[in-house]
Amino acid sequence: MNIIKKSDFIESIATALQYISYYHSEDFILAMKRAYELEESAPAKDAILQILSSSKLSAYGKRPLCQDTGIITVFVKQGMDVQWESSLTLEEMVNEGVRRAYLDVLNPLRASIVEDPLGRRVNTKDNTPAITHISLVKGETLQVIVTAKGGGSENKAHLKMLNPSDNFVDHILETIPKMGAGWCPPGVLGIGVGGTADKAVLLAKESLMSPIDIQQLQDLGPSTKLEELRLELYEKINKLGIGAQGLGGLTTVLDVKILEYPTHAASLPVAIIPNCAANRHIDFNLDGSGPAKFYPPNLDLWPKEVWKPNESVTKVNLNDITKEDISKWAVGQSLLLSGKILTARDAAHKKLKKIAELNEKLPDDLDLKGRFVYYVGPVGAVGDEVVGPAGPTTASRMDCYTKLMLDHYGVLGMIGKAERGPETVATIQKFEATYLIAIGGSAFLVSQAIKSAKVVAFPELGMEAIYEFVVENMPVTVAVDKNGQSIHEIGVKKWQEILVNR
User: Fold this and answer.
1) What is the CATH number that goes with domain 314-492?
2) Which pLDDT belongs to residue 311?
3) Domain coordinates of the chain in residue numbers?
4) Is the pLDDT of residue 53 over 90?
5) I want to staple 366 with a disulfide (CB 3.0 to 4.6 A). Which of 174, 457, 472, 476 is the partner?
């Protein structure tokens, strides 16, 4: 009978979370490297290289892969012969491990969890509580899986109670395009089938915890119906042409995982959960002999090639930008931004809306007219950093504020990730503005372009405060131009036509 010490478990949770914050797993790196080598779409290929280059920087610098360091889910399978040396419950120990990981002074992680979700939505400041699933199994060891899931991909989770006669594959293929690119493809798609509604969703999440092995399955061939379905969906989803970051291309998913469970004769619950380009999860076992040990991945697996801007890329000085300058930009055009930009996420936009409704003055240091707003909540700086990893958040959450920002406040442009809704695209066209995208999953790479950062409004919002960044050669792509052309429509349509004709 093994005895697990409280200190060993808490240390293992904290170390695991630090580890997955800056190391991609080897299977993910190899899958992304293969996707990069095969990719024919120039924008998608560039996006994948940015993600891989940023990943390598994170691995060497031990700083987060993504500014959204996630909501934590922990799966614990406890052997029935295990005993604990602890005065805390298992969930309390998990939360203490999370707390220690996120408040680590050498690599502090962004706290994103808010309590009172239907009311004040106040940040808990240490990213607790985690979501903990506990099950009892045979044996005398403790099996643990730790995962950190970003809001952009978690928000794309989908559940539908199908009829037993409904076509499972058709349902998946109809749903994927509706998810948009806010989940930061390419990534892994998890699917749970059967049980009840809650069981199907849990199966989908659990399926994401296994290694990427679709290439091995292709080489060996399927031996079960589920393996046949995985291969079929992998091929058909990638033929949708969505591509990296929704820019159009060959690789949308790196793997498709499916778990199933017996269900009611009248039911066919199907849950879909994507894992983003951060792909953070790790497992370990404890047997009472001490805390878990984690070893760095092989740093030689990353491509030798690193991302750098093309010499022909247009350089933009944001400090004297005009609408006339913006009118010359074409959808899909790459830009390097220099100058001052402002940041704002959901909470800041909500405050700006209230100020406008009450006809109040903006804070003294905040002037939005003629500015570009970057949708980001950065990780806190350490050492000589001016800011921590600072990749874009999903722009569509700010769609409901776009008219306010362009009309009332006079903003010229916005920077985020993924597509905008049709009404928002029309609003951008009406005000002759623009929407630019930075690459989701390249947070550390983007942060290297930020030369200074200061809070100019709403410091009480923490990471959602409004910052003023001074950037130098920050890489972006024109996603919506002043004519209402959208790269997320044009790129996907182009590659759908190419793939259909192959």
Assistant:
1) 3.20.130.10
2) 79
3) 3-286, 314-492
4) yes
5) 457
